[in-house]
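Postdoc handover notes: sequence design on the structure in folder B. Input tokens:
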């Protein structure tokens, strides 16, 4: 199993992985929505991979992705939880069913955690889905039971 960071040559692959993740978690898109989402993702990845504020890690076997995870890094005003003001948001933690229970998600997340450490990230947020629970605490994440408020426009 090869573990590697994604690069600009992987933009199309990152889009497929993101769409797979969203669909596995119940998303259903119209053709128009998918066209818009793919266009946004293509622009996003092409812009943010070179900036270094988006990092994807892939676990591959025989040229096929078995597992992947992404982290989005941003700077905010510092507080006691993130002294450097730099925070990461772990997203798109995906392992295809035939590769589950082999520790691949743990490995790709571990690579992203190390990348974040090197970049001075103070904290990494992960809104783990129930399928990802268990990995979170083993990797050093603290389970938080707070309420999020979403404002819709």
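Designed sequence:
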């Amino acid at each position: 199993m090869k573990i590697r960071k994604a690069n600009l040559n992987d933009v199309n692959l990152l889009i497929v992985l993101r769409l797979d993740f969203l669909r596995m978690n119940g998303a259903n898109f119209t053709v128009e929505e998918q066209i818009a989402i793919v266009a946004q993702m293509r622009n996003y990845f092409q812009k943010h991979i070179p900036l270094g504020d988006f990092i994807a890690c892939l676990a591959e076997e025989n040229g096929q992705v078995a597992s992947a995870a992404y982290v989005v890094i941003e700077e905010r005003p510092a507080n006691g939880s993130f002294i450097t003001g730099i925070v990461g948001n772990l997203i798109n933690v995906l392992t295809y069913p035939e590769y589950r229970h082999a520790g691949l998600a743990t490995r790709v997340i571990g690579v992203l955690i190390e990348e974040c450490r090197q970049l001075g990230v103070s904290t990494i947020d992960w809104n783990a889905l129930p399928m990802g629970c268990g990995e979170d605490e083993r990797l050093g994440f603290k389970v938080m039971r707070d309420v999020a408020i979403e404002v819709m426009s």
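Context for whoever picks this up: Residues 44 and 106 are 25 Å apart (CA to CA). Don't rerun without checking with the PI first.
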